[in-house]
Every structure is written in structure tokens, then in C-alpha cells.
# Entry
Amino acid sequence: MRNLVLFTFFIGLSVFSYGQSADYLNVLNTQLTNEIPSFYAHEFKVEFKRRSVVGAPGSGTYSGLFTLAPWTNTDNTGGYNYQLNFNGGGIYYRKALPLDASWGDWMQFIMANSNGYVGIGHAAPLSALHIKGTNNLTSEIRLDNAASNASWAITSMYNSDRLGFRAINAGYTEVLSILANGKVGIGTTNPADPLHVFEPSGGNGTTLRLDAATDMNPNLMLSINGQNAANIRFRESANNLEFQVGSSLSTAMVISNNTTVGIGTTSPSRKLEVQTIDSWNLPPLRIGSSSGNEPAVDFKSGTATFSIAVNNGTNDAFKLYHGAPDNSLVVRDNGNVGIGTTNPGTYKLAVEGKIGARSVKVTTASWADYVFASDYTLMSLPETEAYIKKNQHLPNIPSAAEVKANGFHLEEMDAKLLAKIEELTLHIIRQEKQLKAQEERMNRQEVIIEELRKQVKP
# Structure
């Protein structure tokens, strides 16, 4: 590859020498321009350029640009124009036809250093092959089969310490990731554990498969510092799944092929069979919890499930619920009952939701008959109208925002609504009196009008 570069370089010098007679080669200072392909014709030119201006990869502010334009700039029949760019990052090459609007992409020459090391994107390779992404690009090795229908890529992400294996023909999906801390992810690029397997949607439902020959028992062994701690094993001869613990791997639980479960027994005869050691003199089963957790028992029939639980938190409570705990009947240690809520607060009965009843009796010491007292000041209708226009609700009635934020007390609101009904009744009585007085006045006026009509009649 190095010989190819030198060959290209000397071809350029030969063309230059053939067309001109000189003892040296002039380098033009055109550092701030990036000429289009048609700028050059029948020439070999060497220029001093800012690397960023010509868009060359590599490093350093400045670069040397060699341009070979063997043909005219008026048509494309003579083939391509060629450019070499020399900068601190290496030697780069691009080409274009004379009438192209812009040059093609830069490509780098790959050369070995004195140690025989080759760098791609790296000016000082540290191994036989050293690949480094540039300009925030990902370093990548791509592997294709002959038909290019099974392409893979091994990538080193520029913005993270992660090595990824990608299936290019499957949407460039990263199927295996290895972090710098040694954690491995399958199906995830951010493994949280030494081995993290994630199955995306659309899979076959099997996230991890352990397989073994017919006469073997597939195992998943858990060890601590090389010592046996636990084991999950499928025993082929018994067709059972066994859970073993301790250094001797004693069987603690069995799930049989007929879906019965045994704890303390390897041959359960019920859906759940628990056996204890007689010398313990203890009940074989206890449902308990640590602080913050709730021991519970579920009862299921068909699709309906009901649970009984005891909360041992700050407020001990007995709970009966169907579905989520928020849809519970709760009895607190202080006797307060909640339905649809796990926190009845200070209420003897707190219900989160609707209540249906044929009759509800509310006792209260305050009622609204004070409206009929002789000293009660009744707001006039114009005053009421002005208040409504200003506040958008009736006087002495909370606004919608207040009810939404704080709710209301039923007995208090009933009393306030009754007061409004009583005030409305007083207004109706007052208007009835006014109407009656107006009617009497109109009757008298009609009598007077009739008498006047008779007096003026010819």
C-alpha cells in the first residue's frame, strides 16, 4: 500500500516535469478555498490547505493537497480528477469527474508503521491492527458472507465503553454487548449484571434455554468463591424440576411433571405439600413478613381472586381485597374501616368510590331555619346577581375549585342548599306580594280609566 502511494506521487511529479521545466515544485497557498473539480484542467498542482476547509479526515490544522487533473474541465470523457491530502492523521484520497458538482468522499490509505502495525483511523497504532473512530464515529469491523445476506458488525461505540455485535441485515440491531466493566448484555446494550439477557417483543417467549443430552440433567449451578451454594436441576429420570441448596445440594423443593409442588418432600401428593421435621415441633407452614411487607392468602375461583392479608406497618390492619390492594376492605387497629382505600384516616368509614343505599340518615346540630328569623338579612336579587357575576357561584356556597380541592361535608352542604331554598322561598313570597299589590293597583286604575272614558264620551 505504501508503494501505491509513492507510485501515485511520482506519477504526479512526472506529469508535472513533462509539462514544465523547473528545479523545484511550487506549493500554492490556497488554504481558505475548496475548489470544485472543474477548477482544475490539464495540470498537477500542489497546494497548502486548511484541513477543515477541504473536509479531510485526520488531524492538525493544515495539510498538503496534491491534485492531478489529466483532462479538460469541459467534459468527462477523460475520466476522473484525483486529490491526495497529507495531514497529521495520514494520507487521504478522493476523486470526481470534472463536471461533478463536488468531490467524492475522502478515503484513507492504510500503511504499516516500523513495527508492522496497521492503524485505521489511528496515526500511531499500538497493535497489529488498531482501529479508531474519528469525528465521533464508531469503530467497526464488518463481516459479510459471499451473498451479503448474513452481515455482521463488531463495533466500538464512540460515546461509551461498549463493544457491540450487530446483525446488519436485521436493522443493524446490537444483539450482544460487552461493557468495559465486564458486564455482558444479550438483547440489551446496558446490562445491569455480569450477564443480562433481555428478550424484545416479537420473540418466541424463550429468553434463556439450557439444553442437555437425553441421559444428562441440565443444571444451573450457583456458587460462592467456587463453593456450591444452590442448584436448579431438571432430573430427566423423574421428570421433576428440583431446587437444591447448601454445599451438599440437598433438595429443598420439587415441582413434578403433574404440576404438584413439594417443600420438604420429593414426592408431593397435593398441589402444594409442605412437610416439616418432627423434631422441630413447629407448624409446617407459616405466612409472615418483614416490616413493610404483607403476609397474604389468596382464594381463587375461576377468574375471581380474593385475598386476605395482614399489614404490619405503622397501622396494623386486616385486609380483604379483590385484585389490587387499593380495592380493599380494610379494618385498622383503631377500628376505622376503609372500602376502596387502604387509609380511612380519621373516618370510622371511608369509601373511595360510589355508595348505593335505599336510605341514608344524617344527624346534625345545625340546620338552616335561621333564614326565617325576623332579624335575618336577605340579600336582594340585584345584590345576588352582582355577586354571581363577580364570583361565578352563589353566596355562602363553595366554588367548583374549592370543592375539587377540598370536597365538602354532606350535612353542611345540605344545610347550605336548604338555606338557599329558603331564601328563594322568601323571594318568591315577596314577589307574590308585589304582584298582588300590582294587580290591585291595576284594577283600581282600570276603574278610574273607565270613569274617565264615560265622562269624555259625547
In short: Residues 369-448 form one domain. The mean pLDDT is 82. The longest strand covers residues 227-235. The chain has five domains: 1-136, 138-202, 212-280, 294-360, 369-448.
